[in-house]
Amino acid sequence: MRRQLVMGNWKMNGSRAANEQLVSTFLSLWQSVEGLEVAFAPPAVYLPQVAALLASSKVVLAAQDVSAHVDAGAFTGELSGAMLVDIGCQYAIVGHSERRAYHGESDQQVAAKALACLAIGLTPVICVGESLAQRESDETLAVIGSQLDAVLNVLEPAQLKNIVIAYEPVWAIGTGKTASPEQAQAVHHFIRARLGEQGAVVRLLYGGSVKASNAEELFAQADIDGALVGGAALHAEEFFQICQAA
Ligand code: PEP
What we know:
single chain, alpha/beta, 39% helix, globular, binds phosphoenolpyruvate
């Protein structure tokens, strides 16, 4: 019922030449399948280039961030959801832990960005996750719960079917440490329950050092509907293997 989604977050990596190589190698390997959607989230400056490279494929485009401002105006450096849709994006990542940590994005700003996406028909991929200290002090579910509640407080229940949530434990991002399938499933189950009646249709991605070697056991969990992949998404063969595991 829920279509799986594997999204590669390139973060601040790439060049015109490297992007072309990555996308063309991936597309030479990948045959699109009904039950799985694949997305690339390159740096914003390369979105038009990657949109052109993906034009004849079914791989879709995602932005790594979006402005909380819906209307055009004096917001230097910001990119609106309308601009992202205009250049072919279907998704925007919001609230990635690197944005929360390095740019001070609060739960309320993340919720405002999710709303801005929905206002223009862009699907927000809303990231939530606990730090290592929070996990060790048994605060994981409380932290995830309040990050989610900030979003649930501003969205109408009917809008939930148009969002994706990515559970990304901060201690697992770029560290090589992956949450065990059981740890990830427990949090995904909690998130789905917190979403209430609409939870059954919301896609929940896991993110945090997903690799070809651990993807299959993560995807086998009942509440994991795909992955948000960082480092491994920069390697076409490995990203292809992760997509195959889904
Ligand atoms: C991410 O940045 O969203 C991520 C999950 O990174 P990595 O796969 O490198 O841990």
